[in-house]
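As a warm-up, study this chain.
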Amino acid sequence: MCGRFTQDFSYADLHAYFEFFGQPLGNLEPRYNICPTHNITVVLPSTGGRHLLERMRWGLAPSWWKKTLKELPATFNARAETVAERPVFRSAFKSRRCVIPASGTFEWQDVGDGKQPWYFTPANGPLFLIAGLWEVWTNPQAPSETVRSTTMIITEANEFVAQYHDRMPVLLRPEDVSDWLSGARGLDLLKPAANDVLQAHTVSRAVNSSRAADEIGIIAPAQIPTNIIRR
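Now compare it with the structure written out below.
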């Protein structure tokens, strides 16, 4: 799964991939320790070939959910193998797709004395584009309260990522984004990225805590522990 990631990019970086409609969404402040239930920046399709930039809760709440968000199971990831069938994701897969821009993701490798975090970043460019879904949920206890939420789709790891972890986000090529958002294509796009798309380095185990400081220092390269053996 992918349970932590970063968003550190500018509007200029996003405009290299998207043309947006309307006014910018406030300041794009860098985020280095994004966890499930945090609000994240998401790209939605719009009319006329332009897109919308919104903030959504990371952890999809389907429209039919009748309990509180605290009672919602973990829905921050959707498995590519089952996303079209699972009730929690099925409707969004058909008609509510999005793209989640990210500057990096964290994954954890099991080692002899615990878990070692690795930070994956684009091999070229400031960001990559993760296939996502979104929903609108209305609080049954307070009908005036609505929450827009999202999930990122994950798939099996490619050969590069498999050295560290067995899963990775679905990374869309820029030329495939329109087909994904429009629904013209679906499951055939939900596959591992090419092996040369990402690079990785170890970071401090301070990242193992979701309460780690949300600052640039947590993505700084750390020395590779001598007990790490890649698969």
